[in-house]
Amino acid sequence: FPCPSKQTKLIIDFLIIGAGVSGLSCAIALRRASHRVVVVEREKEIGQSDVGRGVRLPPNLSKILYRWNLKSEVSAFAAKSKQIQIYRLDTGDRLGDHYWDDEVLRETQGEFLFGHLADLRKMMYAVAVDQGATVRLATTAVSVDPERHAVTLGSGETLTADVVIGADGAFGLVRPMLLNEQ
């Protein structure tokens, strides 16, 4: 599924820690450019920690998914939003309604959608794998060696790549490691 106009002559090996929306987006985009991609994800099944969690897909995200020819996949789980009602969190008082302006949506070339996070991640996982990314589930990264571009897994195995991308979230391995080094 590489995008012919986006293919690169220099093929790079990428290792992505985390198969959330960010990690899977990276995997899809990199595969579209013909790079080699391995994603490691600690969950045994994509979306298992997301059950019941809603997600909004603003126009800047839906536009990208649509440009990747995923409109029918997105439409299978997401509903288009015409408006939202806004309430105060602390009191529950209704503040009003917000309508999505047609001109703004035309300009952004997307739609404002709502769905379930698990469904979004499952769809993106299927696309990434279909496009040739290797996604290793039930695989926990326990350390990163930035100098060697190496990631050690809970099993003791060490993976290396040209580039390591930390997409494991605010409470994952990579962010605290980077913040401690600053």
Automatic annotation (TrEMBL):
Asked if Secreted is a keyword of the record, the answer is no
TM segments? Answer: 12-30
Boundaries of every FAD-binding domain copy: 14-176
Tell me yes or no: is Coiled coil among this UniProt entry's keywords: no
Instruction: Enumerate the SUPFAM superfamilies for this protein.
Output: FAD/NAD(P)-binding domain
Q: What is this protein called?
A: FAD-binding domain-containing protein
From which source organism is this entry? Favolaschia claudopus
**Which family, according to the similarity comment?**
Belongs to the paxM FAD-dependent monooxygenase family.
The protein's GO terms of the molecular function aspect are: FAD binding; monooxygenase activity
Which domain of life does this protein belong to?
Eukaryota
What Pfam family is a match, any one? FAD_binding_3
Q: Which UniProt keywords apply?
A: FAD, Flavoprotein, Membrane, Monooxygenase, Oxidoreductase, Transmembrane, Transmembrane helix
